[in-house]
Amino acid sequence: VLKGFPADFLWGSASAAYQIEGAPFEDGKKASVWDNFVRIPGKTFKGTNGDVAVDHYHRYKEDVALMKELGLKSYRFSVAWSRIFPDGKGKVNEPGLKFYSDLIDELIANNIEPVVTIYHWDLPQALEDEYHGWESRQIIPDFVNYAETLFNAFKGRVKYWISLNEQNVFTQHGWVLATHPPGKKDMKLFYQVNHHANLVNAAVINKFHELNIPGEIGPSFAYTPNYSIDSNPKNVLAAENAEEIFANFWMDVYCQGVYPIVALTYLKENNLMFDMEEGDEELLKSAHPNFLGINYYQSSANAWNPINGGVQIGEMNTTGVKGSGGEQGIPGVYKKVSNPAVDRTNWDWEIDPMGIRIALRRITSRYRIPVMITENGLGEYDKPEESQVHDDYRIAYLSSHVKSIQEAISDGASVIGYHTWSYTDLLSWLNGYQKRYGFIYVDQDETMEGSLKRIPKDSYYWYQNVIKTNGQE
Ligand code: BGP
């Protein structure tokens, strides 16, 4: 029997500070690692950066007014740490805090539930300079102090909190692929950094509960459910390896406080095991998120990858031309292969609405935890025609995923909200302004000299109706 969406379902949309705000050095803010990284030649698409982005810092009232017209129930955004603590710690920068406080008030005045991401990748540069940021355990007290400042400032007004956005993505890009700051390729360090991030996540969740802040908190994980390309047991095993090492490796820690055994064995055998200090295991076990945030874009099909001559970890397709991504994997463990059963975007992201249902069912059965979909969306080239944007492909993508979530709810999953990526068009970290996700077109392109005018796309009006009918369209 197909169940309806809960009456209080959060129909939302999402963004992140660096991708929308601009104003990198205004009102006392200092550099984050991204402010510097984008200035290294070749690191971002055509050197695009977030100096202006979509100027949300100055236009947030206009953006919230359009949210109200859309009927949005919730809006997920992130706080730029270096607006609150320009040096990562020390004295609070009041004007920085005020920006978010005003934004929150504006949302609440328009009946929109704020969902606050504490960390969406923009670490204060000062902490990178002082102790290499995530590479040091010194980040734990500094992060907890930053989070506690937000909890106290916004308690009673903000009910939903995201501790870390996509820890699996920022650690792999930062320390394996070198495509995010600090731009390193060091597998062993990656696992160490990742362990620190787990400790931070646990410590922040514990702090939230200790302080008795009214509301709920959880991390957002980029879950790409793994399939086997076929029923060949070698490929099935490869898919299980991928699921253990690239999914359960994070979700088990978040939800059960333990690393999966198969993954730990792999780390130990490959001399990649990180240092665990006394008390770490207890800390991880003691933290209980209220929900798990899931960012879902695609699934992944896997095949066996031989030890000798197997494909290695590769680069992503950032060209925006379908079919330009190469195979990638770890010899002896798995390789990702193209799934002939699904279509792909121009950036080779596989379009698989049923995958979100599969993801929700797996999480429900394994962890019995409520899920908030914190991101889901389609990156495409959009072209305005006479002040309209006909993004029927995006409507098709989102609509099929909404249906699939409803099916997952009917299967027994508890889903508390759905946030599309993204609300307005914004900066894509590695793809500049050409890869658009928003309900609202923003006139900003690779020259970074657009008028910044906002134009609601067809998908905006489609979502308005979804919200009005609580998912029935
Ligand atoms: C997620 C990030 C978002 C956003 C999105 C789309 O990984 O949390 O910040 O960037 O992916 O990714 P992209 O811009 O690479 O298409």
UniProtKB/TrEMBL annotation:
<keyword id="KW-0378">Hydrolase</keyword>
<dbReference type="GO" id="GO:0005829">
    <property type="term" value="C:cytosol"/>
</dbReference>
<dbReference type="GO" id="GO:0008706">
    <property type="term" value="F:6-phospho-beta-glucosidase activity"/>
</dbReference>
<dbReference type="Pfam" id="PF00232">
    <property type="entry name" value="Glyco_hydro_1"/>
</dbReference>
<protein>
    <submittedName>
        <fullName>6-phospho-beta-glucosidase</fullName>
        <ecNumber>3.2.1.86</ecNumber>
    </submittedName>
</protein>
<comment type="similarity">
    <text>Belongs to the glycosyl hydrolase 1 family.</text>
</comment>
<dbReference type="GO" id="GO:0016052">
    <property type="term" value="P:carbohydrate catabolic process"/>
</dbReference>
<keyword id="KW-0326">Glycosidase</keyword>
<dbReference type="InterPro" id="IPR017853">
    <property type="entry name" value="GH"/>
</dbReference>
<dbReference type="InterPro" id="IPR001360">
    <property type="entry name" value="Glyco_hydro_1"/>
</dbReference>
<dbReference type="InterPro" id="IPR033132">
    <property type="entry name" value="GH_1_N_CS"/>
</dbReference>
